[in-house]
Every structure is written in structure tokens, then in C-alpha cells.
Design goal:
Blueprint (H helix, E strand, L loop, with lengths): L18 E4 L5 E4 L1 E5 L3 E4 H9 L11 H21 L9 H12 L5 H10 L4 H21 L8 H19 L8 H31 L2 E3 L2 H4 L22 E2 L3
Helix pairs in contact: 1-2, 2-5, 3-5, 6-7
Length: 250
């Protein structure tokens, strides 16, 4: 997970100006630093645009501030997960997993051509796309190892959920239809409860990681309204990049 992005230029905030880096199609994209996570992970404006480009139906020609803020939130969380994952040996994505994940991503768009147009519009190369997918799979593997492997749902929990939630919901949404017996939906309910526990544990993990992190927001326009737990060490105003701060490909 130590892969770097040499194409992005790191700027000095003293000038207050952006730098330009070549984009696909011969154009230029103005890039700037947006945030630093724990004095070591640099998030740039290009990172935000790349996040948005991989989301269908999200405008990228004139990005909305709320979309940029949402992308920044996700990238901060991703940096925190990666920093934790780097502390442990882990299994990286395989070639087959990469191909499958890329195909699934492309299928979320109206066409291959539209997907490619969005990548070109934000100056993302095929190699950079591959790096993003690679890291996303690595993060998923780490979270699965940390949480899914140790998540247990007891028969008592399944039975309680069936009685208190599943049956009332089924009668409300499908009136007149016979409610399935517990044995016929046991695995479905168990899977649902496991996913809920994993989601809750992951949220708690990210909340604790954010509370302990040093998050420096370098772009005031995106810092306002950024969700952050009480007591976090993150700064909001401009600050010089920490020594060793590095751009990543996400």
C-alpha cells in the first residue's frame, strides 16, 4: 500500500496558487493540496475528482461542493484504514480480483465509452485506475479480516430478530402473504445481522481512528461542515505540508 502517484505535483501553500499537471487529451488540470492525514498522507484536488469520476451520475465538469466534501470524507476514512492495514501483513488483490472489480465498476455506467470519457475528463490513466481498484480491494480485505472473521451471531439473536423485526416487517410490506417459517429464512436473517454488526463495528473503528488522528484541512472551502468527532486533532486553516507528506493514487 506504499504506492505513490508521481504525476501529481505537491504545491507550496505560501504562494496560494495551484499547479498544473497534464491531463488526458492534452488539457491541463489545476491541482492543489486539500488535506493531510496524520502528517503522512496527502489528499489533493485530483484525488477528489477521481473519486467523483468513479461515481455514476455525479457531475465532474462542474463538481458540486457537497460532492467534493463527501469525497474528502471518504478519502480521509480510506487513508485511516490504509494506515492501520499497513501495520499488519495482509493479502493483496489478485489479478483475477482486479479484473472482476474493474468489470463490475464499468457495468455501473451506461457504457464503456461513458466510463472512459469520465476518466479522461479528470486526467486518470488506466494505470491509476488500476491502483485505485487495487487499494480498494486491499482495504476491503483488511476490514473483512479485522471484523468479519470475528463477527458472531447467535441463534438467540436470529430468533429475536425474526420475531421482533422480520415478521412485523413482512406483514406490513406484504399483507396477505404467509410469513415464511424461521427455518426457511434463518440464513438470510443471520447474514443480515452479520452485515449490520460489521457496519457498526467499522463505524466505531473509524470514529475512534478519526478522534486519534491529526487531520489538517488545507482547503477552507471544503473544511467547513466536515464531519469530525469531538476532540479530534484536525486543523482547519492552511498549514505547511508535513515533512514526508505524500500523495497517493486514490
Amino acid at each position: 500500500m506504499k504506492r505513490l502517484l508521481p504525476a501529481i505535483l505537491i504545491l507550496t501553500l505560501a504562494t496560494g496558487a495551484g499547479a498544473q499537471t497534464p491531463a488526458a487529451g492534452g488539457g491541463e488540470v489545476v491541482d492543489r493540496m486539500v488535506a493531510i492525514v496524520n502528517d503522512g498522507e496527502l489528499i489533493t484536488y485530483s484525488d477528489l475528482l477521481w473519486q467523483l469520476a468513479l461515481q455514476p451520475n455525479v457531475p465532474i465538469d462542474t463538481p458540486r461542493r457537497e460532492d467534493l466534501r463527501g469525497a474528502l470524507e471518504r478519502l480521509i476514512d480510506q487513508r485511516l484504514v490504509v494506515q492501520e492495514a499497513d501495520k499488519l501483513p495482509h493479502v493483496h488483490a489478485t489479478e483475477e480480483e482486479l479484473r472482476k472489480a474493474e468489470a463490475e465498476l464499468v457495468n455501473r455506467f451506461p457504457s464503456q465509452a461513458e466510463f472512459q470519457r469520465r476518466l479522461e475528463r479528470v486526467g486518470m490513466t488506466a494505470a491509476q485506475l488500476r491502483e485505485i481498484i487495487h487499494e480498494r480491494i486491499d482495504m476491503e480485505k483488511y476490514l473483512d479480516f479485522r471484523f468479519r472473521s470475528f463477527t458472531v451471531v447467535t441463534p438467540q439473536e436470529v430468533e429475536a430478530y425474526y420475531k421482533d423485526a422480520y415478521v412485523p416487517r413482512h406483514r406490513r410490506t406484504r399483507p396477505g402473504v404467509v410469513v415464511p417459517e424461521l427455518k426457511n429464512v434463518y440464513n438470510e436473517i443471520q447474514s443480515e445481522l452479520i452485515e449490520r454488526k460489521i457496519e457498526s463495528d467499522t463505524d466505531d473503528f473509524l470514529e475512534e481512528a478519526r478522534a486519534a488522528a491529526q487531520i489538517t484541512i488545507l482547503d477552507e472551502s471544503l473544511g467547513d461542515g466536515l464531519q469530525r468527532p469531538e476532540g479530534t486533532g484536525g486543523g482547519r486553516g492552511p498549514a505547511p505540508p508535513a515533512r514526508g507528506a505524500r500523495p497517493r493514487t486514490r
